[in-house]
Amino acid sequence: MNDEERQRYEARAKIAKALAHPSRLMIVDRLQHEELCVNDLAEAAGADQSTVSRHLSILKEAGLVSSRKDGTMIFYRVTCGCLDGFFTCLENVLKCDMNQRRAALRKGRS
Fold it and tell me: 3-79, which class in CATH?
């Protein structure tokens, strides 16, 4: 693997790592549909604002979300529109895995 390939895989890993938390997945999912502030996201996550702020910082560092200030409020949004396809892909993987497990259980009972 050359340096350029390694850098690309490291960048991909950074994004995957940023998404590798249930609360961050929920935050990104919510932000796909509308801009929200930390208060709104904290309420949705059932977490305190400082925890959500840390999650947002990780997502922002990975380039997944951006922010804009409006007076004293900071609103967050997803930076790319392709995450909906990513979530659809994840759901398809989950369904496929579940179906394979069910088939293996049925086969084991026969």
Answer: mainly alpha
Residue 14, C-beta contacts closer than 8 angstroms, at least 6 positions apart: 62
Whether 56 and 38 have beta carbons less than 8 Å apart is answered as yes
**Half-sphere exposure at residue 17, Cβ-oriented, CA atoms within 13 angstroms:** 11
Show pLDDT as tens, one digit a residue, over the chain (110 residues). Answer: 899 999 999 999 999 999 999 999 999 999 998 999 999 999 999 999 999 999 999 999 999 999 999 999 999 999 988 888 888 888 999 999 899 988 888 887 76
- Residue 73 three-state SS: strand
**DSSP symbol at 72:** T
Single pTM value for the model: 0.83
Radius of gyration for the alpha carbons in the chain, expressed in angstroms and rounded: 18
- For 41, the token pair is 């996201």
d(CA 19, CA 51): 15
Six-digit token string for 66 = 């951006």
